[in-house]
Amino acid sequence: MSADTFTDHRASAPAPAASGRLLGLDLARGLAVLGMFAAHVGPDPADGGPVAGAMQFTHGRASALFAMLAGVSLVLIAGRTPRVGRDGRQALARIVIRALVLLALGTVMTEIGTSVAVILAYYGVYFLLALPLTRLKAGPLAAAALAWALIGPQLSFVLRAGLQSLDWTELLTAHDPIAHYSGEGLLNLLLTGNYPALTWMPFVLAGMALGRIDLSSAAVRARLAVAGAALAAVGYGGSWLACQLAPTEEQLDWWHGPEEGTVATTHPAGLLTASPHSGTTFEVLGSLGIAVFTLVACTALLAQPSSGLRQAAAPLVAPVLAVGTVSLSVYVGHVALIGALGGDDMQGSPLVMLMLFAVLAMALARLWTRLFRRGPLEAVLHRATLLARYVR
Q: 0.85 exceeded by the pTM?
């Protein structure tokens, strides 16, 4: 992740008047990185208490925020007013190059063998799937996101149940070129993994819709805040109500279910849950609502350079902004550090471990961003996308 989610909007988009919008993206991204730290090296949510509750809140929601921000960044690359002609083709080429680099990097990071469910390869797939939609306006993109959220999880349930009953999994994997090099083959990336495209694309599409509108407008932010709160209420509240009205022994607990990327196919009642990473419609809507609200809050905080609130928050915000600016490097670095520490499963570590990870990331990111424009991996990614200039 760079100053956008795994892309570099500063290198490819004109400098917008609303700099607070771009800063808001970086701040939201930084919060998502720290939330991911909490999910990977924080105390176990099952321990109970306020700290465990805060840890539980990060599970699934930080990665959902990342995916939504990826959609915003795709629009910034393609152009808020879609580029046409050679500029448009070069923008699409930059997206394709980023997707392929992230797919390769995600494969390498997965092979490190930590307990972290690395999301990079999934991002590569999201980018490729979003390519045909980069010219759509905000309304159609939002409608597509909602439709996908309503249909995708149910379709995923049916397809995965069919794969199990027909035993096609081994056959598909045997002919999957990606599966020969990584445990994350196409079947996992699209359907059965921790962040499968079939159930996670609504976050990307919603982010693309947000990228098409003016987040610098206070009126727009107010409407989005209401929409985000409504989505969260429908997602989590609707799941709770559905579980009360249709209880069953085989139904997953609505809040504390297993985190495996998709709901189990043992019983359709699992589709009523809203557990983190359960991949249900309720979970997608709830997580999306929180992601929208978070982005709106971050943008509002940084929208007015002269506001007293922004100036008062500056000392606390600056380190998080720095993390968001070099987020790809921070993400890869934290996975590598977990591997170096021999952490096959560091979830459930003491709170001090999470604090050490967070302080180290913020300190290094703050130092780096004072010296360089891009993070180390962000610079490599940017250089790779320079190949797009040869597209005619």
A: yes
